[in-house]
Amino acid sequence: MRKGDRQLATNRRARHEYMVLDTFEAGMVLTGTEVKAIRDGNASLNGSYARCDGKKAVLHGMTIQPYEHGNRFNHDPDRPRRLLLHASELQRLHVQLDQKGCTLIPLDIHLRRGYIKVELGLCRGKKLHDKRDTLRKREATRDAAREIAKYK
């Protein structure tokens, strides 16, 4: 995500559960009520993932709550949504996803120049000891910052 982008939803568990090897930015094919609901903050990335074959990428498991003023034109909250990527990116992703243990996880949804974009992470699952190491490093950094602040 770049400076000036407005963050609309995040997948907070993704960076805890997975090691992010690479990131991609993709557009999404959305209906009008989905766009309005996401701008209102009614999107959830918990448990979502993306699948990629050679020709297209699809985001599964993302929930967008119905827009409250959408009446009969509202959308299905759990429908799969097509991702818009360049053909070269799709080909590269297809090759990388064939590796054992790699998966495509949405990290956040943000607004860039009026368009809703999703940041995808090419991820590998963390083992329990990796999660403990991450927590230990974060705690050590926090303690060091606390000590430095004490002597300022």
Describe the main β-sheet briefly. 7 strands, antiparallel
Please name the CATH topology.
Small Protein B, Chain: A
Shape: globular
Counting helices, strands and paired strands, the structural category is alpha+beta
User: How much of the sequence is in beta strands?
Assistant: 35-45%
Number of domains: 1
CATH architectural group:
Beta Barrel
**Helical run tally:** 4
- Uncertain spans: none
Could you characterize the architecture of this molecule?
The protein is α+β, with helices and mostly antiparallel strands. The protein has helices at residues 14-17, 32-39, 87-97, 128-150; strands at 6-10, 18-28, 43-44, 49-52, 57-60, 63-64, 81-84, 102-112, 115-125. It has a single domain (6-126), classed as Small protein B (Small Protein B, Chain: A, Beta Barrel). The protein has four helices and nine strands. A seven-stranded antiparallel β-sheet has the order 1-8-9-2-7-5-4. A two-stranded antiparallel ribbon has the order 3-6. The longest helix is centred in the last third of the chain and has 23 residues, at 128-150.
